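During the second year of the project, the team shifted from modelling isolated chains to modelling whole assemblies. The rationale, set out in the original proposal, was that interfaces cannot be judged from single-chain predictions alone. As a representative example for this report, we include one of the complexes processed in the last quarter. Its constituent sequences, exactly as entered into the pipeline, are reproduced here:
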Amino acid sequence: MRVPDCYEYYLKPKVISGKKALDHIAFELGGMNAKKPIIITSKKHIRTKLDKKIITAFKDSGLTIGAIYDGGPEYLDPNLAYRLNHLFRWHNCDSIIALGGKSVTEYAKALNIFAANNGKIDIFTKDTDIIAPLYPFIIVPTMDSDGYESTNSVSTGGRRFKSESLYPDLIVIDSRTTSTGTTQDAIASSLIALAHSVEAYISNNSNPMMKSFAHASIQYIFENIVKVAQNPRDKKGGIALVNAAALAGSVFSNSSSHPAHILGTILSKKTGNYAAIIMGAILPCVMELHMLKGEFDGEDFLLAAGGFDMMAATPVESHGLKSVEIVRTLTEKLHAATQNFSAYKISEYILRETASEAASSPDVHFTEAECLLVLKNSYNGTQIKKLPAAEEIITREKVSAKGGRKCV
Amino acid sequence: MNVLDHRKKGLKKMKEIIGTSNRILEIDLNTNTFSAYSVTQKDREMYLGAKGLGLKLLYDRLKTGCDPLGEENIIIFMMGVLMGTGAPCSGRFEAITKSPLTGIMTTSSCGGPFGMALKTSGWDGVILKGRAESKTHLAIDAKGVIFKPADDLWGKNTRKTQELLSKEGSGSVVIGQAGENLVRFANICSGHRFLGRGGMGAVLGSKNIKAITAKGKEYKIIPKNKKMFGKAKKGMLKYINQNDITSGSYRDLGTNANVNLSNAGGILPVKNFTGGMHKSADKISGEYIKNTYDTKHHTCKPCSILCGHKGTFDGEKRAVPEYETTGLLGANIGIFDQIKISEFNEICSEMGIDTISAGGTIAWAMEATEKGLIESNLFFGKADGVGQMLNDIATRKGLGNELAEGSRRASQKFGGREYAIQVKGLEMAAYDPRGCFGQGLAYAVANRGACHLSTSLFTLEVYFNMASPKAKRGKTTMVKFFENVYSALNSLQICHFTAFAVFLEPPLIKYTPTPLLKLAVQNLTPVALALMDLRLWPALWSSVTGIKLGMQGFKKAGERIHVLERYMNTREGISAKDDTLPARFLEEGRDCDNMNRTVPLDKMLHKYYKVRGYNTNGIPTDSLLEALDIEKK
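Output from the structure prediction step:
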């Protein structure tokens, strides 16, 4: 691996993973001068009694849990953030624990921003800087965690708000909280984590630190996802996958390019279909496109995903193709042997709209034609064999406000 | 009087069409050519006309997955066989296309002069394909169509456009600026009526078509069996004239007669469907409008119900807004002043915007502003800013450009999806489903989106008290039954409101005490519905076409039409995940309901699929398609 001339990698959260990891929370909070956390979770996790596991962990600590919040809509809005802030202040809380996946952590991050700035900050309609230092923030990911929890961003309404302050201070991964999910949770979260890790691996600002974490994440996923999908109660497998997700979140935050993530998220919003399935189908095509552009040769990737034996048995010039093949095989196995999402019957004009929107994102370094190529091939489950021609433009008709029409 | 005398008097002797001309004008805008198409007898029998036949024609031609605003989309205007015959309330026609708002099939029914003009020009329908190279006005007469430039019409509102075209023919359909600017819920205007839902105006705009005029008065339509027709017509008129709604409240007060009923029943939409009742509802009711604004009839021809009215608002003569407008651009945004509501109605009428989608989208914007997701000058209870925003939507300026995409797309971009009150992208009509669970199921599964006209179950559940509004029992059967019947009704075609007369006036229903009726409808639903006497409708159709159609055949045709539309939608990606309601109705209670009830959709949905013959993912099965003789494509 070539060492770049210069690179940056921001690595913040402390991670405690393993048996009885939850028991460390009280001690860690003490180290952050916090005594009264609020726990943000969801009804799903209350039903599986995960909150009780944390409460039990506090038993002999001398600390008090200030409040537990388990409500909220799937999407974060300012009203919810204000209500959480009110709850936080009413109970004199001084730290936040998020128990669950992405939506739970979004509430927790938004609460942290509001609480630390006494409600006087608008992250829903304005691009703004976080002014005050945030409260100590711990996440306890569960099987439905896809790694987004451990990133430096939060989505507020239609905006994505990024700041290094938003990284959690501590990630606690305990088999008691990682083995209560379902097969669907395991598959969905792992597909998303895989997409994030692979994208970070092949991104154009990839560096040794990023590749190391991505490598570990990819390896954990390949080694464990199939058996956890068959048995979600598998403790070792579950903890490995949640570790993989946390690693994926870290590399996602540092990587500059997320085409599979962006395309999958936009298309999922437009059609109401699962983002994880779409991302899983898009990922091999993204890899193929990078290969055709000479940006990915698969060497180290194959070691992570296939192991040493596979890497050794594959000719060097075929590493890239083999890498794509094993990702395709894995994603096929996971979503009921479909390697594409044509079953969703998405119209081509929606794919074109998605490509257009994604290409305008700073996190996508593909042209609109390339985005459309990825979408079409992933939709049909076909391989990308050649790049779009350099002069190729998307023929699209624009309508001016006055009602004229021109072809672009 | 002989032919010469007619000419001397300047009168032209009209040629006759017995039954139906069976000529459909198929226009290719790419090549500026046209041809006449005729349907087979089998298709006529299976799909009746108007909506049914229009859907079948679209099914045979439309490429699945095409862009609704692209060249490949097709829009069809279809008349029913009753148009032009003088049958009561038959002055309505249907338009069918792929909606730019929802991405699936949309059908819309409309009154106004265009239907009669086209039918009496000798055409049963118009199929528009491709895209005109420049702004175009289509002038139709018995010989075909002339492609005329529309540069002088483009940019003009619907009223002005129709004025300018008044000499071209006896009826036209036109779009306003909203259609020109591809506003996703732009409508098409015919006289003072609209093809409202689904953004059909944008489809015409995307084809560079500003207007279609039909000369009219070249043919008269004669039923094949005049005796049978006369009898059926007489029977229908009798029912219409004795029914409390068609000859009473709607004739007297218009559809705003619904306001007090909805308010009392807790289904009036208030503040983006957060409430179901309001103390000021009376100020926007039909009764108040009649007493305050000097209303007079202003209605489609030939109409026997006369629900349309005009009034004097703030010194100006304006159309009285329909109930949906009063609900969505009134109560739902906190406005209880009909002067303001009628002003908003006028803007929507002139610019060519669907008032239901406009109201629903503006309500979303108000709540998003309140919750800090967007910045705007739109606030519940404040009329200021609403008129300007409607203009901005039509002209796609500023925030109006975002709202012109509809509440679903706006909320996908800005957040607040849980209070974008839409299903499949179509904004919901003015009946809160937490007060009528059957209507809730109907909204979730209706083919074109959150449509109240697919079943109008709220009337049975709340207005007539013939079914318990908060019970689930029997609702799946009711939804299926009324979906089938209304699909057939819109294929005859005849006004939806004749259903009040036909359902309620036959002696069995009229003279059975309501509690007993309710007991039967609720607990013996299939039996009660089977006993409903719907014979007048198929009798009218049979008398015009000469083709035998009984009540069972009528209902079966309706089922076929409904399932065909569903099947076409599933080919565009619709499945069980889309048959849902906004989170507000599934998770939030209301103050007006002390039990804070939400719609128990999950308990009804899969039973509905079973009753319908769909699989567990909501897709019509092969055996169902075969049983209905729908060719799978």
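The two ends of chain B are 55 Å apart (CA to CA). Chain B touches chain A through 41 residues (CB under 8 Å).
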